[in-house]
């Protein structure tokens, strides 16, 4: 047996910032060296960020990725780190002739081993995911090589993200070729309860490969996606050895006792058990097994419960969207209702209350308690607020244009949207919208009104979950959370307990237009998330008339959702990357 200290760099790269990501690679490698690591592993496509989408179809971008990889390998050596092997993801290209149906330039979701100032091994993702948020047949061609690098006497195999989620491929190749450790760089986005699925997968694949497995995952927000980290190390039996925190950058350093590599060096083909052949390349780096040393105690970070996970994901997604896009502050409308209260609190926790600006825009129909609840939230959180009554502005519109019913109600929402966008233009704030997933699903929002903005913190949060998250946040004080520091719960209790209303007409209630949210959210979960048809929904126990009405509301609101801002994805199927339906569409579900 041989000892090997590995360092998993659970990091937050920025898409397209090749120079910045390379700088971070050098910085984190220095950290790993100070910790005495023998191997450092970064995440999938770390140098380019992930996902880069259509950037990979530009030859200039791929060229820059390859050049950055070579340059950072030389820099590591120049800074005295050349003898520390580094595994990192980047974008490469395959040596393939152009053909119809192949992505332009044949890009590869690639991984490389850096050592001695050069790139000593290259590989690429074998299994390309093409489901949910993934569209990788559009962007990449399949890799068919797998390096096994002998590091300090231990054979270390490398696979990439989806190669772990699919049967066959690199895991089967490792089982046949033999290795002491399989390292897997990942960019695996968060959705609720995914950490349980991920751990079971890592445990199972380690047993199939017959070796220890180190899974390192990206952390951070990228447009709609949030990456939760949760890097994992297990032994060959699948037993958990170490686990990183969720939603935080972290260098997870772990000592392993692993078998000495005895396989023959060189290249050889292996049946990947998925209809393909993988070429295994085994090579040895300078430096034999290390002298015995005292291992560091393994770290297993505590797990967050489901509500804590979701809240952390929302905060991280909002923070990174704001900071990575260069905004200094945000602005949003604060009504006193629960949606705007939760969105404001998420923003305060994400970037600090001093950078959060809210506008109270009472209309002729706004209740005293709504204004009072909004003012109380402002006091508790210490955010910057201003009040702009809209009654006279609405009246000025109505003098020029005769509007009634829904058109008159929507005018109020559009006046509020106009004010927020105007203040955004004047002061450079990012406008946050405050609609939840239940409203977005049923079209219970106003285009160019409450849907106006640049980012939507609770876009993927059903209404019942909005209440649950608000209650959870109120129960977790300064010692439990980020930048918001208050001796009182941040959200007034009345905002949580009162009956929801858009307050666009006298005595309006959400239940005037929608069923109770606990009923609605169960139905939406099965129609939107699980893709059940109308007969299946009725068979599942939903009222037939309600099924027909809600399905109609969801289907005709598709055009609204296409115009809604992006927001953090937390559910298995969000409105955006996950769910893509035609706007012009005459298909209608029927209950029989």
Automatic annotation (TrEMBL):
Ranges for region Disordered: 487-515, 565-592
Pathway involvement of the protein, from the record: Cofactor biosynthesis; NAD(+) biosynthesis; NAD(+) from deamido-NAD(+) (L-Gln route): step 1/1
Annotated positions binding L-glutamine: 131, 188, 194
UniProt keywords, alphabetically: ATP-binding, Ligase, NAD, Nucleotide-binding
PROSITE patterns xref list: CN_HYDROLASE, NITRIL_CHT_1
EC numbers for this chain: 6.3.5.1
Comp. bias regions, Basic and acidic residues: 500-512, 575-592
Top-level EC class as recorded in UniProt: ligase
Gene3D superfamilies: Carbon-nitrogen hydrolase, HUPs
Sites where the protein binds deamido-NAD(+): 410, 439, 560
One function term, GO molecular function aspect: NAD+ synthase (glutamine-hydrolyzing) activity
Reaction equation(s) it catalyzes: deamido-NAD(+) + L-glutamine + ATP + H2O = L-glutamate + AMP + diphosphate + NAD(+) + H(+)
Domain CN hydrolase: 4-258
Positions of the catalytic residues: 44, 125, 161
Binding site for ATP: 333-340, 434
Classification via NCBIfam families: nadE (TIGR00552), PRK13981.1 (NF010588)
Annotated function: Catalyzes the ATP-dependent amidation of deamido-NAD to form NAD. Uses L-glutamine as a nitrogen source.
Similarity comment text for this entry: Belongs to the NAD synthetase family.
Protein name: Glutamine-dependent NAD(+) synthetase
Organism of derivation: Microtetraspora fusca
Native organism taxonomy: Bacteria, Bacillati, Actinomycetota, Actinomycetes, Streptosporangiales
Gene: nadE
């Amino acid at each position: 047996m041989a000892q090997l200290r590995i360092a998993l760099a659970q990091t937050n790269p920025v898409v397209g910032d090749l120079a910045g990501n390379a700088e971070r690679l050098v910085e984190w490698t220095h950290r790993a060296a100070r910790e005495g690591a023998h191997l450092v592993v970064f995440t999938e496509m770390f140098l380019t960020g992930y996902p880069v989408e259509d950037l990979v179809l530009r030859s200039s971008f791929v060229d820059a990725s390859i050049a950055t990889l070579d340059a950072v390998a030389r820099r590591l050596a120049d800074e005295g780190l050349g003898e520390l092997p580094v595994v990192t993801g980047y974008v490469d290209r395959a040596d393939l002739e152009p053909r119809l149906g192949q992505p332009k330039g044949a890009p590869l979701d690639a991984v490389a081993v850096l050592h001695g100032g050069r790139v000593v091994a290259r590989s690429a993702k074998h299994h390309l995911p093409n489901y949910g948020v993934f569209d990788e047949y559009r962007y990449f061609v399949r890799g068919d090589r797998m390096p096994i690098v002998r590091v300090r006497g231990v054979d270390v195999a490398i696979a990439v993200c989806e190669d772990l989620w699919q049967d066959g491929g690199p895991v089967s190749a490792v089982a046949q070729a033999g290795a002491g450790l399989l390292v897997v760089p990942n960019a695996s986005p968060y959705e609720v309860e995914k950490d349980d699925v991920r751990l079971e997968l890592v445990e199972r694949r380690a047993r199939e490969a017959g070796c220890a497995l180190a899974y390192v995952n990206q952390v951070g927000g990228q447009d709609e996606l949030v990456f939760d980290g949760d890097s994992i190390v297990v032994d060959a039996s699948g037993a958990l050895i170490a686990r990183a925190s969720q939603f935080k950058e972290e260098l997870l350093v772990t000592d392993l006792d692993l078998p000495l590599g005895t396989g023959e060096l060189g290249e050889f083909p292996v049946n990947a058990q998925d209809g393909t052949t993988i070429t295994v390349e085994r090579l040895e780096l300078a430096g034999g097994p290390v002298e015995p040393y005292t291992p560091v105690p393994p770290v297993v970070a505590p797990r967050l419960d489901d509500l804590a996970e979701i809240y952390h994901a929302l905060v991280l997604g909002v923070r990174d969207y704001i900071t990575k896009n260069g905004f200094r502050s945000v602005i949003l409308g604060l009504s006193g209702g629960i949606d705007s209260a939760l969105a404001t609190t998420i923003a305060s926790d994400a970037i600090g209350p001093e950078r959060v600006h809210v506008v109270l825009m009472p209309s002729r129909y706004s209740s005293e308690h709504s204004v009072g609840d909004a003012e109380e939230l402002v006091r508790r959180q210490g955010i910057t607020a201003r009040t702009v009554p809209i009654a006279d502005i609405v009246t000025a519109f109505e003098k020029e244009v005769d509007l009634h019913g829904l058109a008159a109600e929507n005018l109020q929402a559009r006046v509020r949207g106009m004010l927020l966008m105007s203040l955004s233009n004047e002061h450079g704030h990012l406008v946050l919208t405050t609609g939840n997933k239940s409203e977005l699903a049923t079209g219970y929002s106003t285009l160019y009104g409450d849907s106006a903005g640049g980012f939507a913190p609770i876009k993927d949060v059903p209404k019942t979950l909005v209440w649950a998250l608000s209650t959870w946040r109120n129960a977790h004080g300064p010692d439990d959370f980020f930048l918001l520091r208050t001796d009182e719960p941040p959200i007034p209790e009345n905002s949580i307990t009162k009956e929801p209303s858009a307050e666009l007409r006298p005595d309006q209630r959400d239940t005037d237009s929608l069923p109770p949210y606990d009923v609605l959210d169960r139905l939406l979960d099965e129609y939107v998330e699980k893709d059940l048809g109308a007969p299946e929904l009725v068979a599942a126990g939903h009222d037939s008339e309600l099924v027909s009405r809600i399905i109609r509301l969801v289907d005709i609101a598709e055009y609204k959702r296409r115009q809604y801002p992006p927001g953090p994805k937390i559910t298995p199927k969000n409105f955006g990357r996950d769910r893509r339906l035609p706007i012009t569409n005459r298909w209608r579900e029927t209950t029989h």
